[in-house]
Amino acid sequence: MPRSADNRRTRRLLASLAFCVLLLTILTLASAVVKPGRNGIDGQGGSAWTTYRELPSDSVDVLFLGNSHVFVGVDPAEVWRTRGIPSFVLGGPTQQLKLTRFYLAEALKTQRPRVVALELSSIAYGETHFNREFQQINVGYMPLSAEKLKAAFLSTPPSERAGVLVDLWTYHGRWSSLTKRDFDLLGKNRGGEFLNGFLPKRGSVEVTPTASPMPEDVRARADAALAYNLPYLREIAGICEDADAELLLFLTPTGPPNAYSYQLEKVEAVLGSEFDNVRTLDLSEPGSVPGLSYETDFIDGGHLTYTGAAKMSAALATALGDEYSLPDRRSESGDRTARWTSGLAKHDAYLRSFGSATGD
Amino acid sequence: MQFTSLEYLLFLGLSVAVYFALPGPRTRTLWLLAASYTFYFSLSARWTLALMAITAIGYAFGLVIAASGVGTPVHRKTKRLLAAGIVLVAGALFYFKYAAFSAGLLNSGLALAGVSWRSPALAIALPVGISFWTFQSIAYLVDVAKGTVSPERNPLRYALFIAFFPQVTAGPIARAGQLLPQLAEKRPFDYERMRSALVLMAWGFFKKLVVADPLGVVVHTVFSKPHDFGDNGIVLAGAAVAFAVQIYCDFSGYTDLARGAARLFGIDLMPNFARPYAARSIKEFWRRWHMTLMSWLKDYVYIPLGGSRVSKWRRYGNILAVFLFSGLWHGAGFTFIVWGLLNGLYQVLGELLEPARARMLALVRITRDGALHHALQVLTTFGLATIAWVFFRAESLSDALYILPRMFWLDPRPLLSGGIPDLGLAKAQLLVTAVAIVVVFGLEYLSARRDLTALLYRQHVAVRWAVYYGAALAILIFGYYGPMSTAADFAYFKF
Fold first, then answer.
1. Is the ipTM of this complex over 0.90?
2. Which residues in A lie closer than 8 A to residue B480 (C-beta atoms)?
3. Chain A CA closest to residue B481
4. What is the rounded CA–CA span in Å between residue B320 and residue B313?
5. Which CATH code of 3.20.20.220, 2.20.25.10, 3.40.50.1110, 3.30.43.10 fits the domain covering A35-356?
6. Residue of chain B nearest A133, judged by CA positions
7. Which residues of chain B neighbour A19 with C-beta distances below 8 Å?
8. Where are the beta strands (DSSP E) in chain A?
9. Kind of pairing between the strands at A87-89 and A62-65
10. Average pLDDT estimate for A283-288
11. Catalytically annotated residues of B
12. Which residues lie across from A62 on neighbouring strands?
């Protein structure tokens, strides 16, 4: 082949590569613009990966995982205030346990928590339980990694994979409602760091705590969901074991009758015999959270208001501190304590204005 | 695996990469065939066997027909073999597409005659693209019998001719003489060809995602509940016009994607559209719309019926027969039959009324070659086509008959008093779609006057890349796809 043809071919190959790289860059930028920001202070909860990844490494003693019950019910600032335990909530809306295992694996890349506290109400989700929008949040906001790909391929139906992996695919339809803030690529995921993954909720409904015996059909569904989720729980317990972390399976307070406590007991019986690092804590039993009001501290049957979350988090912190002998970090000097102290002040100021917005 | 899915794009990219990495035509044929069957299986797993069966019939009959002696006029024995081959292939098409419709007609007839026996109700799923690959098979058998093409002796190449994945779902309907030789050649990688293929595909994506699919939402909103818009003739007329644009952008967009994908492998498929809405008569419209089907109908139905070399009235009958056939090909239903017949009738009436039109033009002193006459012809043709499209799109004949008279009652009062009703799309999306329609027809108008792609390729690299990136962003941002949309399949997939 003549040299000029060779040169032409090389030039075209390089130009094609450059074209593709530039195209990819433009599309990545466009994706970042149309993807909604997720900063914790504008009402969106869960998948607080941006904040989590900016934490100093190995700075968290307790990592909270689970579904909306955890990011609405657990307030790390209250956990710090009560027992000086630095923690973070990395839950996701309606997150299935088969997805939580990838959250845990990814989270352990930057933190080495002594306790992984998994809120277990997601054990009620059976095989067919799926919500497209929540899955896009759960997987779509994970950092690009092998765990994200696993979450997309092993916990997402094939027809939804493009939606969780390609942001432009999912969010391009927002073009007509974009605001100036959407173009602030560095700032739109920031602002709520002091909440550490917590989503405060307000407004209350009166709920009835669990009391009546469980109907047979509910028990049958609970058993089926339990059987479906046990392998994922085993995997989660194994990941914790490999990371030298204790696994606490707990329940937040809930209203109407449900099978969570029944399932938690069953899980304890099974995993307790298989793993040394698994313990359980049922805060859904009436009276287990001091001061919790079933008239004013719930926004619905399963989620707490920010005042209820404060009470629940204090109870949880006490249990964590006692059960695992976690150190009180408030007395330590250093950046971590300073960061939590200043964060607590911002948190309190934010919740004061949050509460006063509706006169709470 | 739809043409507009990410899976398809990955599949296409992988297929092209492996294709050019393979050494010779034989391995490439094998690879393309495997890719084609994988594609078809992903779309219509249970009917892959039907595709294989039709392929086997076409291949075997091609060989036996050729062995019986070919040429024009066709020998008697060859005729019998050809008839048998056509009956088998067309029989499959009839079974899948028309058996249920025929059973329904039969039962209606029996009920009218007072007979109590009823044919059992049939619910037969339609294999994707069957109307296209059966027509391609029939054309092949006829061409072999006439001696205009040699029978394909390589079964893999013949199978690829029928199942080639860019065209297996909705054409263009290829002719053996045009496609088979290309499949036999080794096509070297060609940068220019690749580039033009990608540009053609981008154009197809634009028409489908930015114009056809959003318009489809509006059209569906109105045509699924026409009675909700019964007092709003402007909306009904707008929906009819929207469908005329949607069906064009959908099908021509699909064709661009199919031809672009084939071109990536170095294979040229026949064009299917030539600015049909610029036609000055319905006759011309049908020379510009779905050209591969119309040329098929001309060669294998119209000419065998006697074509134009018969008496005037017989010729009119032939035209009506061809368009009735075309209507039935599109779907087993009265709406399609009326749509086909109406298009045939337009042409017959067009010829019959030609002297009266000439007298009227002379009377109002409009010259035939003038711009005004041209514009009137184009508008009239578009209007007539749009009226016919109402039958094509309506969900029943009664819906079409409800819409048609009301869409001419262009009373602005409902719009003035109630504003634009909810048509399923946000105003911003409607606005973008309107701009995109102007872009599509504007660029097609300009491209008829000069070669726009050649003009683009002559520009500085910065200009070219800016155009490419702008087009990509326009498609990806403004396109109606993904989980936020209810984007539909290509309209012609169901035929």
1. no
2. 173
3. A169
4. 11
5. 3.40.50.1110
6. B483
7. 465, 468
8. 62-65, 87-89, 115-119, 246-251, 278-282
9. parallel
10. 86
11. 330
12. A87, A115
